[in-house]
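Bench notes, afternoon.
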Amino acid sequence: NDPSTGDIEISTNTVIAGSMTATNFDEVFLASNTLTAAGTTLDVSFNGTGYQFLKFYLIITGVAGTNIARVAFNGDVGANYYSYPTDALGAGSAIGPVAYIQLQEAVVATPGFFKFWASNYYSAVKHVLWEGTRGTTAPTLHHGGGLWNNATSWITRITISNSVPNNYSAGTTIRVFGSK
């Protein structure tokens, strides 16, 4: 760089803001869904083919009773999931094989927010990391890791459910982003 001339030297590994595309790790919006009325599940389908990295957000606006939030993929309700959720700073619990990834250890009846990262390689097990919080006056931190034992498909559908048949409130939303 030569400040006297205003010239800028750009190396081959420099990223210029706005220059990234979906083919080189830029996240692109894939889909979202919002409950317009209370419901026990929230689904979102999208074209996940080729998107090897997924990030998704879940906003829980409220819930009709105590529950534990759960995640499943592509409508798979078989015992193909393992998870290790932790609440606050306590030790976690190994869960599986079951039909979902469990996001919390203890039941709560409060609004919340979760952020997820998932690997989405077609021919490999799908690993998931998450962090989130639920509460109204004293939020509880939830985080963990899990996996979907499927090495023969892309993730193209995410289902959020709960541990008991009570409803998530209208306005509960999921948004999905992907990168290649």
